[in-house]
Amino acid sequence: MIKGVIFDVDGTLLDSMPVWDKLGELYLKSLGVEAEAGLRDVLYHLSMEEGAAYLIDHYALPLALPQVMEGLHACMVDAYANRVPLKPGVKGFLDGFKGRNIPVNIATSGDGESVEAALRRLGIRDCFDRIFTCSNGLRGKAFPDVYLAAARHMGTEPGETLVFEDSPYAVLTAKKAGFRVAAVYDPSGEEEQQTVREAADFYLPAYGDFDSFIKEAE
To answer: DSSP states of 27-88 as a string?
Structure first.
């Protein structure tokens, strides 16, 4: 029986991966600088700090590292606060869990300020009890810390807690920690969908009928 639910944000709850793909380009544009083709591929595996350092060096930006990181953060917050949409169909799942009085928390590697801004704009902040972020003293999703913290807050054990994730490595992390996992398809993980399918308890090519899903999950 499912007693608690945890949602990832980027690529799972919000259709936000295109913003991350274009973050460097958007920031450079705000400075009047044109990004070279392929910038997304360069920045994809870099942290925010590493990406900022690359932009300074490669584009000869006359700015210090903290200034560039602040600028990238501002572009990200603006996108979440004004443009990032929900994944199609996810609102039906949130309403379904709420109707069954099943608590729902968020576990994200992203920025808490940006997530809060997006959820409030989209009118779904009250669907979640609390937002747990890896940046708030918790290790990244190669470790289960953020999922375990969310479960403790709900008073649920991993085996009775359902995690919604799109990232292959995060799906594996949650599964190894004993959580039940519903993997959500996102185009950003196209090449690793077979791994996701095999690792998760449930696989959602898209959010469909909630009643059918919950019947199978329980």
So the answer is: HHHHTT-PPPTTHHHHHTTS-HHHHHHHHHHHTT-SS-HHHHHHHHHHHHHHHHHHTPPBPT
